[in-house]
Every structure is written in structure tokens, then in C-alpha cells.
Amino acid sequence: MSARKSERLLNLLITLLVSRTYVTKDRLRQVIPEYGAAPSDEAFEKMFERDKDDLRQLGVPIEVGSVDPLFEDEPGYRIVRSAFELPEIELSPEEAAVVGLAARVWQHAGLASATSDALVKLKAAGIEVDREALNVVQPQLAVDEPTFEVIWDCLRTRTPVTFDYRRASEITVERRHLRPWGVATYRGRWYVAGFDTDRTAVRLFRLSRVVGEVERDGKPGAYTVPPDVDLRELTSALAPVPQDRTARLLVRQGAALGLRRRTRPAEGAAPEGWDLVEVDFGRDGSLADEALAYGEHVVVLEPQDLREFVVRTLQESA
Question: What is the pLDDT of residue 4?
Fold first, then answer.
């Protein structure tokens, strides 16, 4: 089923679901853009009948009734909410995660504006509308990232993208080129995983750190996603690492303020102009990179393996 037809079916479903009365075919043609764009009455009739049959085959109970009880010459259509709602079901944590992700994607699938327009037109025609019925098909999960929609569209069409990206704890931005493989959410933040053609490696980018707009960087179908890609494995780095190690550092007074927020005073004497602190960490590389970024303002004392790594990196750089 094409994306265009899926959107049309969903618009028809929503329109019939929110209406408290029967809706005629003429009214549906006015409120659903795809029907209004039909080149002829015959084309609209065929399109509507196919869509109606498709919904019924999907298990959607469409009722046919009279719009005016005094005149039965103008049949209308509606979906009774109680007949359409699913009974309470239980999902495993993995299934719930998939449904949650699909729900968030739906929110930014480009349907919100079309649905709102249809509801406004129904109200203007004097048809009473039950907005709460939308809860049956509209997940109440939002995607706040302005770049999500274009990322999702390019992911779906296999179109490379390019964007400016600001890494954590950095002021400057750099241009990145990516072939999106998938999107994921963790603790309310959205990430896109894919192949970074600048680094020739798989990378994960947080959408909130994208600066400006995401631009298309090629034609649709320009790449394929490897069949063995495991999005869960790619995003496993988002899970917090246990802070099971402790480092002792010398931090120059008035410097490394970002690091200081996580430290605590350590026992022992420090040289004049320095503070002796402790900090918990989980990944050697993460704390080492942070200490190296502060240059001469941070000295690693312990543990020995972390100190040796920092010293060796400085020597190689020199």
C-alpha cells in the first residue's frame, strides 16, 4: 500500500470516527483533500468504494444510515467508537517499546494538519464532532524536535542528509553527512543512527544538537540499509554506564567548571592554586577525553591506568 493511500484511508477513518452523525459521500469529498482532487465523479466514486472496502477488510466497522430520518434518499457513513476500540491488551516490554516508537512517528507523519482541516470543515457544515474519538487512533506522544520530520522522510526514502552538528561541551559546529538507518528515543530525546560518510563509520546523532535545518544530500534510493543492522545494538551506547570507578584529579582554581559540577573534595593537600578532587566515572575514554579537553587546567593523579593513558595521549600529540 502506498504512503498516499495509507494517508487517505487514515483521513477517512478519522473523519467517520469523530462524527457524531452519518456523513454523506458529498461531505466526505469536501473535507478530505484526496477526494476533492478526484478528476471526476466517477473517479471519486471508485476511490471511495475501494477505500471503504479496504477499511472493512481491515476490521473497521463502517455503518450506513440515513442522514435525515425523514428522508432516506441520502445515505451516510460513520464508525461507532465502541465497536472500533480494541479491548485491553497486554504487551511485553519489547512490544510496548515498538508501539511507543510507532506512536511518536505517527505524530510527525504529516497527518496532523490534514486531520485538523477535515474537522474544521465538518464543524463548518454543522456536523457535530467528537474530538475525543481521535484518542482511538491518535497516540498522545509528541516529537518536539523540528528536524524529526525531514530525518524520518529521508530515512523512509533512503535519501542522504547533511546538517551542522554541535557535539556536547563544544561551541563550534561542524558539517556532517549521513545516510540515516533508523531513529530511536531515549529519556525523551531523539537520536538518528546511520553511516557517517565523513568518518566512514556508523555514528549516532542527537537531534537536539543539530543546528539549523537538515538538508537532503542526494536522491531518494541512493543507498540501502545493511540487512544485519540492529538498531537496538547501535543505540545501546545511550544507556548509562555504571559509575563504578573513582579518579583523583588536580583542578586549577577557577577553571574546568563543567567538570567541577561532578566532583567532590578529596582528602589530601593540593599545590597552591589547585584543588584536589574526586570524580566517579565508568568509561576510561570518556573521562580521559574530558580531562584532555581542559589541557593544563586538569591533572589526572589516579587511577594509574587512566593517568598513563592521558600522559601517553599528550606525548603523542606533542
Answer: 72
